Amino acid sequence: MLVLGSRLLNLPIMGLQTGTELAYTRSALINPYNLVVAAYEVGGPLIGNKLTFLRAADIRELSSAGFIVDSSDEFISLEDVVAINKIYNLGFQLINLAVIDNKKHRLGKVIDYTVEVGNLIIQQLNIQRPFLKSFGDTELLIHRSQIIEINNSHVVVRSGEQKPEPVRQVAKTYSNPFRNSTAPVENINTNN
């Protein structure tokens, strides 16, 4: 199932053991190397002011009540998981990142993304067009297969323009099979 990434923010995190709300999601921690939500920064009364995360691998499912986890033991700090710490230290923010094509044309900026709930892989980027280009279309959807490069300043996507096909040369001499036929032509009488 695909959902907008913004719908997964401020989402309750429910504990399976207690059946109560343990925390809520504040922001997504996105791995820029593979466009996967690695973890969510969480907050709530149990958390306090500590910087705390919920790894995507520890989420059992998404229900109408929110994310379901086993218990509050699933919450981690930055020192607990080295991979989460490395991604956090990159400081990567996908939202408001500029988007250009491989011909250096500005397409707009990322305003949201579509994520697959089962594995939290980002499938599409929602792009807000620049003001002058927004008269024709206000938003673009860019599939992850169109992305060429991601860095801290912009996302580079494959241009939608197709290269023109080369013109094939037509042979200057050709024979008309109806005029140069060496087979005898039979007289066909259509008036029987």
For the structure shown, list the relevant keywords.
seven-stranded mixed β-sheet; elongated; 1 helix; SH3 type barrels; 192 residues; 2 domains
Mean pLDDT: 84
> Which geometry do the CA atoms define?
elongated
- The number of distinct structural domains comes to 2
Share of residues in strands: 35-45%
Number of helices: 1
- Indicate the CATH topology of the largest domain: SH3 type barrels
CATH architectural designation of the largest domain:
Roll
The total beta strand count reads: 14
Which segments are poorly predicted (pLDDT under 50) over 5 or more consecutive residues? none
- Biggest sheet: strands, sense, closure? 7 strands, mixed
Oligomerization category of the chains in this entry = single chain
C-alpha end-to-end distance: 71 Å
CATH top-level class of the largest domain:
Mainly Beta
SSE order in H/E notation?
EEEEEEEEHEEEEEE
Radius of gyration: 29 Å
Helical fraction: under 10%
What is the SS-derived class? mainly beta
